[in-house]
Amino acid sequence: GGDGGPNNRHGKNGRDLILRVPVGTLVYERCAREPQAEESDEALLTADEWRLVADLTRDGQRYVAAKGGEGGRGNAAFASSTLQTPKFAEKGEPTDEITLRLELKLIADVGLIGYPSVGKSTLISKISAAKPKIADYPFTTLVPNLGVARVDTKSFVVADMPGLIEGAHEGAGLGHQFLRHIERTRLLVHIVDVSGLTGRDPMHDFDAINEELRLHSQRLAALPQIVALNKVDMPDAAKITEVLRPTLESRGLEVFEISALTGQGLQPLLYRIAAKLDELPSPSVPSCEDGAGIAHFTVAPSDQTWEARKVGEGEFEVAGHAVEMLVRRTDLANEYAIRRLHRQLERMGVIQRLRELGASEGDTVRIGGIEFGFSDEVYG
Hints:
The radius of gyration is 32 Å and the shape is elongated. Residues 1-7, 74-79, 81-88, 137-142, 165-176 and 285-301 have low confidence and may be disordered. It is α/β, with parallel strands linked by helices. It contains 10 helices and 15 strands. It has helices spanning 41-46, 120-127, 175-182, 202-216, 218-222, 237-249, 266-279, 321-328, 335-348, 350-356; strands at 25-30, 50-56, 62-63, 100-104, 110-113, 145-151, 154-160, 187-193, 225-230, 254-257, 294-295, 307-312, 315-319, 364-367, 370-373.
């Protein structure tokens, strides 16, 4: 906040700084901890000591991460019967500094999963207006693609997730970045390549992907799945499908045979996805305390406690939120403001406690990183 001034001039409150983020953004605050010796800022930022403080799931939703400082009061605010024309004003309140980490988790009804190059991007390009990059090599898709699929009067959001590989839960193939986007979906469509062109075992790939989901989180493993056997237009697909389909159905899975390239079998698959979504519960959305869609940062009442201690010969330290804020809002270049600060510390019992600890005239007292010379003088 801005500093107060003479002629009853109140300082301006701190201006808002608004960061616009996509829907689905998670806000994490770094938990305070003592840095280790010679620990770099980068090491601190990558430590797993973050607390989720906001989940922005709706358009227009806001989160107040830190409140701006209030403007300082003008000199007239300190007038009294014994001090009719104060010669000092209050400095603006500095705001607290916090470190935040923003993480995006896409919000989609359906997630397309499977090994790289099984046809996920081709499928989403056929059932929606999405235009992902499509090529015949692994990891063509490096970021999730979103598309809206429509079935009669219904519509749902589909996310084409980049291909997963074994070890994804440990970060292999950018697995951590991809898996987190699946967490918000309600239904997974697991695409399996039955062309026989890759030389891979499709059943092994199917089980490997599900194991990665399980290792990442139990919630992912529990998401309902529909299996789409893709590339059934290829010559060897019928043989592979004949073996694969009964195995999958014996596990209670619904299986559809499709060709994302030619469009074969897509309509029955889309109708089943739409019907399945109707059966599933709607996604839970965090409620807001007010009607404006704002999740407010909760500020605890200012802590009035403080502690004084002797840290060395002729050196003392006073710590506590209220005491430190009092010092930070005092104009230390103004003699009258310093006298007022001394009176307030006297009323709070700080001066008396320093006397009890053995402080004498001229000793060093540190409050909030600022050093003062101790004075036993009484200011009326």
